[in-house]
Amino acid sequence: MRELYRKPLIRLFILNGAFGALLGVAFVVLALAFDLRGLWTLVSNSDVALLAVAILTLSVSATFAGAAIGTAVMLLPEREEDDKAYGGVDADGNPRRPRR
Predict the structure, then answer these.
(1) Number of domains observed in the structure of the chain
(2) What confidence tens digit (pLDDT) does each residue in 50-62 have?
(3) Residue 97 domain-assigned?
(4) Which regions span the lipid bilayer (predicted)?
(5) Crossing angle of helices 49-74/8-33, nearest 10°?
(6) Is residue 2 part of a domain?
(7) Residue 52 sits in which domain range?
(8) Is 1 part of a structural domain of the chain?
């Protein structure tokens, strides 16, 4: 497991996913605390309140974690070698076709 964590891309996924999941938990806590759209009232009057909060927290955390990972991947800097491998771009920014 330690060898896997040493790889920078895996570490990027783990750290950003954990950060996104924590943001998701914080969002659910704040939504319940401020009783957004009567959420706390609805949950507190339910027979399955714990299950409802658990499912809500899990789904929101998974969504936030996926968004955080996706954002981190899209913000990765490009390498010049990648452009050269595909032919690069011309002066106007249009992609060139690779030579065969």
Answers:
(1) 1
(2) 999 999 999 999 9
(3) no
(4) 12-36, 48-76
(5) 140
(6) no
(7) 7-76
(8) no
